[in-house]
Amino acid sequence: MIKKTQLLLLFLLAGLIATAQQPLTLSSAISKALENNYDIKIIRNKQRIAEINNNWGQAGRYPYINFSLASNNSYNMPEGENYTNNIFTGGPGISWTLFDGFSVKITKQRYEELENQSKNNTITLLESTIQSVVLAYYTVLLEKEKLEVYKGLMSVSEDRYEQALQRKEIGSYVTYDVLQAKNSYLSDRSDYLSQEVAYKNALRDLNYLMAEKSNVAYTLVDSFKAIPADYSLEELQAQMMESNRNLQSQYINQRLLEKAVALAKSDFSPSLNFAGGLTGTSTRTAYKNSGSSWANSASLYGNLTLSFNLFSGGTKRRALQIARINEESGIIEIEQKKLDLLNNLSNVFEYYEVRKELLNVAEENLKAAQLNLQISKDKFENGAINSFNYRDVQNVYLNAAITKLQAVYNFIDTQTSLLRLTGAIMQEYETEESLQSE
User: Which of 278, 302, 407 is nearest to 354 (CA)?
Assistant: First the structure.
């Protein structure tokens, strides 16, 4: 009965572990981050505000219509009979700026640019989030692959330690040899445990980017491999100049500066305003002894007002000068941004080409280290080499394996940076989404 209960508990525990482990692709991780990330939610709300503000009414194209009611009450005490006077007034009124130097049109164009700026800011954050998730996802895979390497090396050291214990029993090994094997095993186990912590921290960082609240243990299903591609620097530069979001932000800022100059110019124009409405008045006079009487009247009015500022201490002229200087500075900032991006792209492209070659070197080095480790293991078991030589070969293999894994990650990092700089990271993600949906 006890054995049956234990088996049942084991099956339930296995079921819980299987339920907790959920597969997670890179595409799914990106989707979760774009859906749950708090910064993205905030910036999307800001975009909604910009869309709401982009309205002709907000720009001042339409009239203002009001309705007012007022009551004026007094108690009068002349020499004769005292009386109470109640005057009630009310009615609708309209005020409308018919012309103000085209400022309404310019303001509406400015709201359109602000909406474009908000959308561009949203896309910029989306690109940044995608890049962060991609690197975090592959960091988890990197730490997992490292963990497997340390695990394999620890297993080899454990076998060596067990062999040393067995050989000591038969007298072919002394205590010194056993201690050397034990130290190697404990050192490898320490490295394995430290790497296990690094792997768990990487998973935790990925969950943080996805704003994952539940304690779901994901199993990353994408493979940890680099897919080299041939790029042309000239083509990358042309694509970057067309699609880079930081550069697009500079263009939008420049258009906003141009609108600021146009608004400053419109302040020199006259303004024509219309005010009209209907006012109704009802007056009640109540004498103390003679009773009360009512008098009603209504008036309809419509007035045009043309105003033109002749002098304001030079404030408008100075405002226009400042707006033009800011516009010139914006042009300089665009050129500076282009130069910065071209220099950054050249550096990243150079890193990409070098890391592609380093990846090939690391793969060849790992193959040689693996073969050397296998040969050295056979020689050590046959007594052809001592434990020190075998340990050196193990360390060479460990360094080669870690270097190869790091080379894969470095290549992916550089390739992702290229996609981000050229503005192609969103298209790359959308392409992956469409392929997986088919």
Answer: 407
